[in-house]
Protein 1
Amino acid sequence: MRVLIAFLLGLAGSLAFGWWGFPQLLYQREPQPLQYNHKIHIEKGSMECSSCHEVAADGQFAGIPRTASCGACHAEPLGKTEAEKILVTSYVAPERELDWKVYSRQPMNVRFSHAVHVNKAAMKCEECHGGRGSATAAEPFYRNRVTGESRNVWGPRMIRVGLKPGEGMKMSDCESCHEQKGVSAGCLGCHR
Amino acid sequence: MSATQKTSRTPRRYGMVIDLDRCTGCGACVIACAAENNVAPGAARENDRNSISLLRVFTLNNPTAAGRRTAFLPMMCMQCEHETPCVTVCPQQAVELDVLSGIVEQMPQRCLGCRYCMTACPYHARSFNWGDPSWPAGMEATLNPAVAPRMRGVVEKCDFCQSRLHAAQDAAAVNGSLDPGIYTPACVEACPTQAITFGDWNDPEGALAKSGETFAWLEGLGTQPKVRYRSGQNWLHEMAERGGAAPAKEERHG
């Protein structure tokens, strides 16, 4: 009996370490430079996703907009929030760029094309990014201390089951959607 | 390639015809290639055998005394189509012939660095990264963001500027197609005499089909290279069959 208890305690300890402790050690939390609110821009600013995240005519994806484009509306604060005050005084006025952390950033050798998925395949942003585009605040960003990559590539849990859209984008996730849709990209279709 | 694949891409067989009578050996293609593909400048220890060169230009001398002439031979991966030697020998399946583009794809992520492919390649078109690439301070800002630098311990080679193929595909995707069409690799763009024609061997109306009589280097091996040459000089045709004169007569350049 004593042996069994010791074993179970040991097991519980290692599981706790593996599933809770290890991720704490592995990932480093980094704040976003500003609490950006997507929802307010869609609702109050009546903006479309493409007014900030555009795919240009040559197929290049704009990514996250530069500060200059925020300045068009935020030369003076429109509201009373602290975040907006920081934006106007620390970034728009001195023309400084915001150092956004990109959750979905892939390793350097991966080639991902928004033009192919958004324009050609007419996919919705939510299919890969979940609710980020309608969130009221930017959630914390976690960086893997070993690889330097965003935690989003692996997903929030150690066991990769039941991932929702926007929670994981490993090679196997790209591939499993491609398999369902009958797409085949050679190695160098997704790599560079 | 699965049988169920639904992509709307028509298979292409990208290739080149290089006009040896037009090549002046200036080396602009070599520089353009290295800049495009983030090939780091050679370290002091580097020589002919251990440097990275995706594209080289050889000097050829006509061995017969009567018609003493010199020609230049730009040589990159020939994108062999039949029993592609590097694909056949790779123990890692890190090299494959892409059926949609005809390009021989090299995957540094899978490469274990055994260099068997370098031995197998009849054209010596492959290089090995003996060290991690490094750039002089400040030069990193000039790197091409669309090409990932390769790490130490892997083999690399010309892939017909895959980053430019990607950009062409992105542009096509905006108009609802996945077909990159005929894009322009860096060496083709840089050539001042337009000696290099890039195109699709599958296209009967294309520039390659119209380029007249062409020959492959070492055609006899039967690997069916998709990079072919053109010349009005007989001795070059003969040399191509033999794979060049004795190596001592060739000197490397660039």
Protein 2
Amino acid sequence: MLDCKLYFQPESLTVALDLLAKAEKRLLPLAGGTDIVPAMSKNKLNVAGLVDLSKIQELHQIKIEGNEISLGSLCTFQEIETSHLIRTKVPLLADAAGLVGSPQIRNAGTVGGNIANASPAADTVTALIALDADVRLRSTAYARTMSLKELLCGAGKTRILPQEIITEITFKILQPGSKGGFIKLGRRKALAIARMNMALIFSVTEGRINFARVGLGAVGPNPCRSNALENTLIGQEPSDSLVEDFVMEAEREVARMLGSRPSAAYKCEAVKGIARDILSSLFSSSEMVVE
Amino acid sequence: MAEFHLEMKVNGKPIVLDVDPGLRLLDVLRDILHLTGTKEGCGEGECGACSVILNGKLVDSCLVLAPQANGQEVITIEGIAQNGELDSLQKAFLEAGAVQCGYCTPGMILAAKVLLDHNSTPSRLEISKSISGNICRCTGYTKIIQAVEIAASRIATKEGADHA
Ligand code: FES
Ligand code: FES
């Protein structure tokens, strides 16, 4: 049994924020529970109690607002994977959500929880980093928006304050015709060293790549953009030799990021495989095109 | 410690309990409701032995706190036989020899049930995907997949007959 002294299940965001604001000891927002519950069973989390957000309907929506897509923080991976809007407008995010954990984890785990836990290997986070996503936070007193990149500040660490809740994750709609993909290695926690993932988005005009974004996960403490890899692509024509340049640069980038860490030898080699697979399949297939 | 007032439906029956909010759904099912068909393997979301159907979706009950099931409908392996007759998946698992030690079986059957409820003509790939969160140490999966195929074909024949 977990040591959970206080448990609240508010039905509105206002009540949830109020609970966090008035708490004397630290209360933790609970989303799907797929990370928090096992961490608590192993006594790895020290909190006075939980504020269960699952009954707050307004946090479950996926919608378009102007030129942005907004994901409610409580959307599960399964909801993202199967959302028509996400599949057509951001296929790489649908793919990333579909590759998280197991069907059971995808039915319970949420995108907001994935961000708040700041796991180095979080799949949807790598895709959202490549999408340059923003995170909207609310407290009783204010609302603020922070870029996802800035919000993550180390393995398991974020700049979310104790009285704040992530309400939405937003990002700009991609240009129709651009392509994007997501790839990962290693599914099980037990194979932690083998975990690595990459998200890639690019568009081509007049035969040349004019826009590229690359997210890399499980290499640094948090998923991050790789400018070096993006610059390898921008201005170039899609070709087999460009794939090889990209693969070489991926190896150099991972070597730079990991330095002399024990996993470096393995990951420098492994990243070549995922870099080659993702770019060559995006160059050759007509799928994964944004509508 | 404040108890949590939990109301849920388990296998069609309304359940009202005051529980310690630190209990997992798995603990309530096994230790309070004595539904011990749901197993605990890893306790951390890797093996699927504790799978149950929560509001129509397969979840690992070792990762769900009991209060999260408040107001929801839970189906466990004990809830799928109808009027004393085994579900077609249960029969098919027995016939195909898909049960060895049996520890993974309740979770496997519930995973396959969610699949067949939505898709009665699944491909092998769809079957493998549907049980990809469930580990079996004994069978090598081949017979489990065969069992799901047998159950699917029976359901399809039965549906065909009903429509005729
Ligand atoms: S016991 Fe729940 S997934 Fe293994
Ligand atoms: S039958 Fe023994 S684990 Fe599957």
